[in-house]
Design brief:
- The chain is mainly alpha-helical.
- The strands form two sheets. Strands 1-4 form a two-stranded antiparallel ribbon.
- α4 runs antiparallel to α13.
- The N and C termini lie far apart (79 Å).
- 50% of the residues are buried.
């Protein structure tokens, strides 16, 4: 091929390549936002690698409620993929979504703590309804009023409390720590004493848990973006070598293992029963603050102005609400925006093209379901502890000079894990904040919506008691 022919070929090819690139630039405003296609693809891959641990963790958590791992994996990957793509296309921000940590644990606690009264289809129905309520609150502009109604100390307490809740679950799952009951020494004593007991180092699960925490801590110090994924991979390999986890027969590990068993299985009429209404309220409530806080934090990291932030957050929360109901219909717990999107933003992502790349990778992960479902609980337990610690770190933002603020926040944080119920933590926090506003002289500053929430909490516990 001579030089003239090569130049002619390039002249014909380059316009063909530039046409789709120019389209992407116009659609996502790449140049205007100071980015390009290569950077957005790298950002999307980075975000996926830092949050794809949910593909292994979510099926393990929800399986405790009697759900099928393969079906939960399918719902997790599909809901994360579709909602991330929708966020990128409709809002044009580099924020990906997936079933949220903390709310999946609450989902399980609702089912297990009901003594059989609440089934997982009813819990899925509660998630679906909460998504619709969330959407209505967003469209009617009540959402920003609710966000403004709650003081910053309670918002911090809710996030930190969910973090401590995850830490508790992670320690229990790994066997590092466990709560055991001991009968009192007195022969006529009817009081049972509770004690925290450390697991033996001879246990493979305990050893893997401690090793995982060490690897995650090292990754945090060295700022490895992929430390969670790397830790899960290393612990899974060790689990296979030690025989704690065994390979399935044949070549099934290389074959997709997906199921649609839980798709459309939600029980909406059952979720509307009186006993589960507080569950719907809690899902909606936590979703509201979790989503709002994540979106604001990630958009600010992406350099979005405050004027544009208000518009984008409103549109993004519509996508978030849609994702909640979609995820429930597919068969998974609450879908929400992921703070891990900040890792992709740190690598240069500024547009929705990054979120679309992340979403496509989640969809492609369906082909690797057999390999991902091989991950044992011992490999994900330290991840629960680490993610919980990241969430709990927000306590540093509490103003401890004002008891009327830090006491309700700390009660919120402590009641959640000790009662194994996120709703109890929020309720105690709100009630104590309102009551302490009287001696502190701040009751006149309380938002009227907070009074309504306080009233509902008192009525709920007066009728149903504390569980």
């Amino acid at each position: 091929m001579n030089r003239k022919t090569l130049v002619s070929l390039l002249d014909d090819t380059i316009p063909c390549l530039m046409t789709p690139l120019s389209y992407l630039d116009r659609w996502f405003s790449l140049k205007l936002k100071g980015s390009n296609v290569r950077t957005e693809i790298l950002s999307g891959v980075t975000t996926f690698l830092t949050m794809c641990y949910i593909l292994a963790v979510n099926p393990l958590i929800l399986s405790a409620a009697g759900m099928e791992k393969e079906a939960v994996f399918f719902a997790t990957a599909l809901s994360a993929g579709l909602t991330s793509i929708l966020m990128g296309m409709a809002v044009n921000i580099p924020v990906a979504l997936a079933p949220g940590m903390g709310l999946n644990a609450y989902f399980v606690s609702v089912v297990l703590g009901s003594d059989g009264a609440i089934s997982y289809p009813m819990a899925l129905g509660a998630v679906f309804i909460s998504g619709l309520i969330f959407l209505i609150l967003t469209l009617t502009h009540i959402r920003p009023m609710l966000v403004d109604a709650f003081p910053e100390s309670l918002k911090i307490g809710i996030g930190a409390g969910i973090g401590l809740f995850l830490i508790f679950i992670g320690f229990k799952s790994s066997g590092i720590l466990s709560v055991v009951a001991h009968q009192a020494a007195e022969p006529n004593a009817i009081v049972t004493q509770w004690a925290v007991q450390a697991g033996p180092l001879t246990s493979i699960s305990v050893s893997l848990g401690l090793l995982g925490l060490g690897l995650l801590g090292l990754g945090a110090v060295l700022r490895w973006h992929f430390s969670i994924l790397l830790t899960i991979a290393v612990l899974t390999v060790i689990s296979l070598i030690t025989g704690e986890t065994s390979l399935p027969e044949g070549t099934r590990v290389w074959q997709p293992r997906v199921s649609t068993a839980h798709t459309g299985e939600l029980d909406i009429p059952g979720a509307l029963e009186l006993g589960i209404l507080s569950v719907i309220f809690t899902f909606t409530f936590v979703e509201l603050f979790d989503s709002f806080g994540t979106l604001v934090a990630t958009l600010r990291k992406a350099g979005v102005s405050k004027e544009e932030e208000k518009k984008l957050v409103g549109r993004a929360m519509i996508v978030d609400a849609t994702g909640i109901s979609l995820g429930a219909a597919l068969g998974t717990s609450t879908v929400t925006a992921y703070i891990e999107s900040a890792s992709g933003i740190a690598s240069g992502g500024r547009t929705g093209l990054s979120a679309i790349v992340t979403g496509l990778l989640f969809l492609l992960s369906l082909l690797a379901s057999g390999l991902i479902l091989l991950v044992p609980a011992s490999a994900t337990a330290p991840v629960l502890i680490f993610v919980g610690m990241l969430m709990f770190a927000s306590v540093a933002r509490i103003d401890f000079s004002q008891p009327q603020h830090w006491v309700p926040a700390m009660l919120t944080i402590l009641v959640m894990p000790f009662t194994f119920n996120i709703a109890n933590g929020i309720s105690v926090g709100v009630a104590s904040y309102v009551l302490l506003s009287f001696p502190s002289g701040e009751f006149k500053k309380l938002h009227w919506l907070l009074w309504i929430v306080f009233t509902f909490i008192i009525l709920r516990y007066a009728v149903g008691g504390i569980h």
